[in-house]
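Input record (Table S2, row 245):
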Amino acid sequence: MLEIKNLKKYFGGVKAVDNCSFEVKPKTITALIGPNGAGKSTVFNLVSGILKADSGKIIFSGADITKAKPEKISNLGISRLFQQTKLFNNLTVKENLLLALDNEDTKFWKNLFSLNKLSKEKETKIKEMLNLIGMEKFESTLTRDLSYGQKRLIELLRTILNPHKFLMVDEPVAGVNPKLREVIAKILEKLKNQGETILLIEHDMNFTLNVADWVIVMEKGKVIAQGKPEEIRNNPRVLEAYLGE
Ligand code: ADP
Ligand code: MG
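Output record (magnesium ion complex):
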């Protein structure tokens, strides 16, 4: 589904992504892990077109998207959860989710100003999603009044509601309490069972090794190991990279 070939991105002297190659197979959860500064988020920024690669290739569903603009990449079906929060704090949970149902700018504004004329179909979809995470009571709550973990959950829902073929989630459980972590793990598993393809960035090794089918480990811009979770768990090279932090 996604193929990264010899990807490079330097920031001055910092080799953020350095000759990185890997593949994401359809209908799997593939995790990209590694110590802070390994280059994981930069890979996401390159795939989603926010940054341009110095060299290398990014192929999505057979199409070369290395030089494509973010809107084009989003329209091809890549939806992502950012490491930093991007919710509209002064809108309600429901309004934030509604905006995600359409990812084109013009429709965005149309949706924003016709919130009262919400279609039954969208309304049902939003209720269903909130039920999934046990947050149905928060529909009319302003996003700014949510806890950090609740915000991350709503953002994750936004990423999922955004029409897509491929999901990229950057550190969904960082700073989130154990109970909500479990909710997020369940959502990811449910999505996979529904046939979704997910690329997950996560710093927390335990969380990752429990949900991922395949794990790619980055350090200093390079892939230093990949394999099944049980192979990664005991890989001395990986433990060393984490201990070196
Ligand atoms: P990770 O997500 O694995 O923690 P990042 O991809 O965010 O790592 O960062 C990789 C390296 O690139 C780090 O050394 C970081 O400081 C640097 N970096 C990331 N983005 C930028 C940027 N926009 N400008 C300069 N340096 C950056
Ligand atoms: Mg990061």
